[in-house]
Amino acid sequence: MTLKNLGLVLHGAKDIRLEERAFADLEALDVRVEFKVGGICGTDMHYYNDGQNAGFEMQSPVCLGHEMVGVVAEIGTKVTRVAVGDHVAVNPIMPCGSCPACKEGRPNICHNKRFPGSATVIPHVDGFFQQFPVVSEENCWKLPKDLPLELAAFAEPLSCALHAVVRAGSVVGKNVLITGAGPIGLLVAACAVVAGAANVIVTDLADGTLEVAKKLGVTETINVLKNPERLEELKANTGFFDVAFEASGAFPALETCYTLTRRGGTVMLVSVLPNKPNELKLNQFMLKEQSLLGSSQFTDEFEKSIALLAGNKIDVRPMLTHQFSFAEADKAFNIAKDRNQSVKVQFVA
């Protein structure tokens, strides 16, 4: 093939360039996917704005992006999972398959995991914000042709949200709190609703994202700047919530989670908190015998997420606010950062 492969390459904080990337040869089990739609994730925004994420600093230019759907353009000689022309969603997790975590069925915490569009390994692995990324066939999941690609592109973040809810245990009939109405927080809320929670309450600082939460079927939304009194009410009797999910990336929100969660309840950390010291009153976990759990990416939830989207069990359309071309990258990232005007921002080709 003689086509060019242009990609969004980050050279440093707020220095992103549309550059030609290698048009890689295919190994026997490789798939070349023509990029169609990809969402900007919080991880991408941290790299774009700060040149780092969760303490992992860029050491060299890297193509961003790990949320992507597209059309199969070419396949290796031994590929059987997909065919040219198929619509596919790409699972970005690239585990080693042999470490203790992988052998336990937990590829998301693989000791040697390679993750595209990040600085977690050196050399960095190029992400999917390029015209023709190459991935292994095992990372490709065939999509129904009638599932719009802009909705299918939510499969990866929805998988992260679904994994967090699964990690928390059954939420049937329970009271659930989500702090942070960004894309992941909203998807966690939607998953909790579908999973049968009795009450799902979402907090944030912006009315716009809270309005989107209402469209996803949550019980109540709270703007904590305008209505802090409601939080005080929910502290009564050592806490209203059985399970709380921290999805804002703010230390005060984590404190809200464990303060408003009942004795014996569970607090799930889904967000990436600032990589700096902070004083939290962690004795609460001992005194109330709460469980503090972390949730990182996902395991077998990717296929389930596609099914939820295809079956319209979770309607993500209220979340999709903006779409841009690669050539509009700076504008896309700046709007994605502004929660007063955006929720989910996508690149489209």
What's the short story on this structure?
The protein is of the alpha/beta class and 349 residues long.
Can you offer a commentary on this structure?
The chain has 349 residues and is α/β, with parallel strands linked by helices. It has eleven helices and 18 strands. Strands 3, 7, 8, 9, 10, 17 and 18 form a seven-stranded mixed beta sheet that branches. Helix 5 links the parallel strand 11 and strand 12. It is globular. The protein starts with 5 loop residues before the first strand and ends with a strand.
Based on the model shown, name its key terms.
Quinone Oxidoreductase, Chain A, domain 1; 7-stranded mixed β-sheet; about 350 residues; 18 strands; 6-stranded parallel β-sheet; single chain
CATH architecture of the largest domain: Alpha-Beta Complex
Radius of gyration: 20 Å
Structural class: alpha/beta
Could you give the count of β-strands? 18
CA-based shape: globular
Strand content: 25-35%
Straight-line N-to-C gap: 19 Å
Topology as a string of helices (H) and strands (E): EEEHEEEEEHEEHHEHEHEHEHEHEHEHE
How many helical elements? Answer: 11
The CATH topology of the largest domain turns out to be Quinone Oxidoreductase, Chain A, domain 1
Can you tell me the residue ranges where pLDDT is under 50 for at least 5 consecutive residues? none
- Using the coordinates above, name the CATH class of the largest domain: Alpha Beta
Helix content: 25-40%
